[in-house]
Specification:
Elements: E1 9-14, H1 21-28, H2 40-46, H3 51-62, E2 66-73, H4 84-90, E3 94-98, H5 99-102, H6 115-120, E4 131-136, E5 139-141, E6 151-152, E7 155-159, E8 161-163, H7 170-182, H8 193-203, E9 209-211, E10 217-220, H9 221-230, H10 232-239, H11 251-261, E11 266-268, E12 273-276, H12 283-295, E13 301-304, H13 312-326
Helix pairs in contact: 8-11, 9-10, 12-13
Length: 327
């Protein structure tokens, strides 16, 4: 197996500046409980500390085969691209794509504060290559990558492990029973990252699913267009909710399971991921984990979720490390 040398590959990053007062005001028009707009759980999803700059720089440094980088956002521009002359000279392959562009024909669902509708419509980015890589704005390439880390003979490399649905896992059954017995909050009406993957796998007729983690998704534009042209109601289901809804599904999981159904994929069990979810552990532990990322060339992805929640001293160290690595 080999990668096609002439394969065009683009990268797509979804991004929002939740600190923007205009964005907060826009959200306040639609959120039911106005008091929750400043809740930690809400802010973790929307706030940022300019991670997007390092996400872009990581692609430019460690994925030389990428043709264009598209940043999809809602009438916003990252700080490092606001000077148009500077951006044109230093980031000529980076473009901003507004939500209005990909929501053409669906503008009545805008504004949206939900990544799931946005991810569902990425395939409508003008001039997007058939093969593209999808990044969240807190995801960086950790080391040098090559085309065949993502596509081999045009087939997407799908990272993940076959996993049972929650209802088929004994301890999940026990947990569900205990929640009901103790009168705890029923979580069945909440969206979850793994639940969203399971939802679409079940709809497509799978008995298990390939569980994704926070890595780069290798996707094909035609996989989406072919499916949604034949199943427009599924697109509608995923884009109509301004905030996350339990009926929605993970769009990368849709693409992966469609590729699996056609046997048009390469399976990779190793996530090749270094993942930070919280920053409560001591600074020495964070330093050790970052040093491990540098030493292990097999670690291709670095995800730093909710970096805006990191204590100041640790955040300063992490940002200095990111500058040294990617500048």
């Amino acid at each position: 197996m080999h990668a096609k040398d002439d394969l065009l590959v683009d990268a797509v990053i979804t991004w929002v500046d939740g600190n923007d007062p205009k964005h907060k005001a826009k959200m306040a028009n639609f959120i039911e409980n106005k008091k929750t707009i400043n809740n930690k759980a809400v802010r973790m999803r929307y706030d940022q500390v300019n991670e997007i700059e390092f996400a872009v720089k990581s692609i430019l440094k460690y994925a030389k085969f990428v043709r264009n980088i598209f940043i999809v956002t809602d009438n916003q521009t990252p700080d490092f691209l606001k000077n148009k002359e500077f951006a044109s000279n230093n980031y000529p392959t980076v473009s901003i794509i507004d939500h209005k562009t990909i929501f053409k024909g669906y503008h009545h669902y805008l504004p949206t504060f939900n990544c799931l509708p946005i991810e569902s419509l990425l395939y409508k980015i003008p001039n997007l290559a058939e093969h593209f890589l999808y990044f969240n704005d807190d995801l960086f390439l950790a080391n040098k990558t090559k085309l065949e880390d993502f596509f081999i003979d045009g087939k997407p490399v799908i990272r993940g492990n076959w996993t049972s649905f929650y209802e088929d896992i004994w301890y999940k059954k026990v947990q569900s029973y205990l929640y009901k017995f103790l009168g705890k909050k029923d979580k069945s009406n909440l969206y979850g990252y793994k639940k969203g993957q399971q939802t679409i796998a079940k709809i497509l007729g799978f008995k298990k699913y390939v569980k994704l983690d926070h890595t780069v998704a290798a996707l094909r534009k035609s996989t989406y267009s072919d499916y949604y042209n034949n199943q427009p109601e599924m697109l509608e289901r995923n884009i109509k909710h301004r905030f996350r809804h339990h009926e929605q599904y993970t769009n990368q999981s849709l693409a992966n399971h469609l590729e699996i159904a056609k046997d048009h994929y390469i399976h990779q069990k190793d996530y090749q991921l270094v993942y930070f979810q919280n920053y409560k552990k001591p600074l020495w532990w964070i330093k050790h984990k970052l040093e491990m990322t540098e030493r292990d060339n097999n670690k291709l992805f670095l995800c730093m979720q909710s970096l805006d929640q990191c204590p100041e001293k640790k955040l300063t160290y992490i940002k200095d490390w990111l500058h040294q690595k990617y500048d």
